[in-house]
Amino acid sequence: MSLLVVGSVAFDAIETPFGKTDKIIGGAATYISLAASYFRKPVNLVAVVGDDFPAADIRTMQEHGVNTDGLQIKAGEKSFFWSGRYHNDLNSRDTLVTELNVLANFDPVIPDSYQNCDYLMLGNLTPDVQRTVIQRLKRRPKLIVMDTMNFWMDIALDSLKETIKLVDVLTINDEEARQLSGEYSLVKAARKIMGMGPKYLVIKKGEHGALLFHNDQVFYAPALPLEEVFDPTGAGDSFAGGFIGYLARTGDLSFENMKNAVIIGSTMASFCVEAFGPERLLKIDQKAISNRSQAFLNLTACDLTLV
Amino acid sequence: MSLLVVGSVAFDAIETPFGKTDKIIGGAATYISLAASYFRKPVNLVAVVGDDFPAADIRTMQEHGVNTDGLQIKAGEKSFFWSGRYHNDLNSRDTLVTELNVLANFDPVIPDSYQNCDYLMLGNLTPDVQRTVIQRLKRRPKLIVMDTMNFWMDIALDSLKETIKLVDVLTINDEEARQLSGEYSLVKAARKIMGMGPKYLVIKKGEHGALLFHNDQVFYAPALPLEEVFDPTGAGDSFAGGFIGYLARTGDLSFENMKNAVIIGSTMASFCVEAFGPERLLKIDQKAISNRSQAFLNLTACDLTLV
Hints:
Chain A is of the alpha/beta class. Chain A is built from ten helices and 14 strands.
C-alpha cells in the first residue's frame, strides 16, 4: 500500500527550558516520514529545500526508507526556517523567526513513480498547495489525511475549507477544532467539522492525549505521563506519521483499526518529545515501539464489571 | 463498610455562560454524600450549617441515605456561602463572594454511632479541621481519602502537609499537584507527593480526565467528551463521592479496584456537570450509572495487537 507524504522539510532552531539548538533539521514532512518509516517503506516524499540543505541529512532520511525522488532542491535558494521558544509549561510557544524562503513558491511535483498512491498524508502547508497535490494525483488515494493549523484558519479560511472538503481524516488540536467550528464542546465541534467533508476527525490535545471521532463514535487515547518532556516540536507530525504509517501497513480502514492507528500515533509522538528535534525518531526499534504501545494500552486497562 | 464524609454543606450562587442561580445548596460534603449514596448507604455526614439552611434540603439528603446525625445546626448563625462566575471555557472561574459564617469556627463532632468507620472521606476544608477529624476517631479507618485545594497550599502549607501525612489517598488537580511538589512533570510530582505520605494520588484534570498513581503504576481515565457542560461546580466532589462510595461498597483496596473506583468517580462527575448545582445528582438511577460507566470503558477500548 504505497504511501505519499507531502509537507515542509526545513531548518528549525528551538529553545526550551532545557536548552537550545542551532539550526537542526525539522519540518512537518521530516517528522511524518521518519515516524511512518517504522511501519511502511518506502515513504514517498514530496517537498522542497534550498541548496543549503545538508546532503547528509537527506541521506539519513533515505537510510530510514524515505524515497526522496520527489524532494526538489532549489539551486541558489534557502530552505524554510522556523525558530521558536517554548514557555516553561511546554504547552505554548512564541515564534521568533519564520523565513518561508523556498516554501513561498512551492509547486509540488509528483514523480510518476509516486502515482497510484494508496495513502496520502498532507502535512501542514498552505491549503492551496495541499489541494494541488490531490488534484495532481491521477487516481484518488484510498485514504487522504490532512494536518493543518490555526494560521490558515486566520488567513486562508476559504481555501482551507475547499481542501478539507476533499479529505478523509483531518487532524487538528482542540483550540483549532473550536476555532474552525465555532463550538466550545468538542462533541459539537467534531460534528460540525465532519459536516465539512472529513469522515474522521482527530483532535490532538498534547499532554492530554488525542480524540478520534467518526459518525457518533468516539475514541480517547490519553497521552502517556512522561518523566521528562524535552522538546514538543514535531509531536503532532510524529503522531500523523505513526497514524498513517500504521494504516498503510495494515490496509484496514475500519474504525476499530483507526483506533489502533491513534495508539501508534500517540506512541510515536511520545518518543519524539524525549529529545530535541527528530533525534529520538532516528533511533527507535520495533521492540521499543512495541513496549511503548503496550504501556499506552496498560494505561487505560480496567476490568470494571458493571452490576 | 461504614462510610464517613466530612466537609462543607453550604449555599452557592453560580453564574455560567448558560445562566445563573440564586442561592442553591452546595458544599463539598453535599456533592460527595449524594454521589456516594448510590453505592453505599448510609453516608454518615459530619458538617455544620446555620439555622438559615432549609429543613427541606436536609430531608432531601436524608431521603438519599445520608445520615445527618453529625450535621450541626448553629442557632442564630448563617451557613457558609460561596458565589462564583465561570469563564466562557468553564475551565476557570472567579470567586465573587466567600462568607465563611459557621465554617469559621467549625468544630467537627463525631457522633458515637459514627465511630468504627471503615472509610473516611475528608472533603476540602481547613487542614486543621481535617486532621482533627482523624484524631477524634478511636480507630483508624481502613482508608482515608482527602481532597484539598491550592488555597490551603497558599495560606496553610505546614498544616496541610501534617494532614497529608496521615491519609491514604490524596485528590488534587494538576495545577495543585505541580504547586505542591514544585515539579512540572506529573510523574515526578506524583512521586514527590506520595513521598509525603499518601500511598495513592489522584490527579483530577477536569475535561481531560483523571490520573491515578500508586508506586510506579499509573492509570488514566479520560473524561467523557460531553455534548453540553452546564455547570462544573461540584464535579471534583462528585468524583470523590463516587470513588469512595464504590470502594466502601466493594471493600477491595487493590490497585485494580482503585482503577474501577476512578471510572465510577469519573462517571458521577460527568453527571454532575449536566445541570446546575447538585440537581442532576439527585435524579440518577443504577441503569444510568451502568450505561455511563460502560461509555467510559468503551471510550478507551482498543484491540491493538502488537507485533
